[in-house]
TrEMBL record:
One of its GO terms (molecular function) is heme binding. It comes from Paracoccus subflavus. InterPro entries: H-NOX_domain_sf, Heme_NO-bd, NO_sig/Golgi_transp_ligand-bd. Residues 31-133 form the Heme NO-binding domain. Gene3D superfamilies: H-NOX domain. This is Heme NO-binding protein. Signal peptide: none annotated.
Amino acid sequence: MRELVSRAIERFLQSESSYLVESDLLPPDVMLRTAARDLQKPLDELVEDLGAWLVRQNEIWRLLRFCGSDFLDFLLRLDELPERMRLVTDDIAFPEIALTRGKDGLVWVTLESGSPRWSALLSGLLRAMADDYGALCVITRGDDGIRIDVSDLDFAEARTFRLSARTAAP
């Protein structure tokens, strides 16, 4: 599985920044740290960009869009994501996700364990999914978790989603 993750990071770096990984199949953390240093970009920012890039991969996008009819529905089912990931692979130790929805409408996402890089990756994924659903929101990552303030669920037209890529348009 490490090989799969390393290949994904390699594809991300090549497609987003034309960065060429010098050594074939370095451990993922080493690849990201080296790229962040060479690109003079904060590591968390690079990992957040990786999260957004993952959403643009059709297979992953389809898996994520299947999780909710709109962005708020997607957010409220986010705690199911680790189990969905285990359906695809059980080699990645994806941390458990806890959600809290405040009376003020804010959604707080906390990761139960794991590297702080997961929070950065999830932030990028959430930003990309908000755009995909056409939602206007502010996503802020802090030490205590990820804060999502959804202002408008229908701010822009959402990307069309069909259960099957072969389904004809109506």
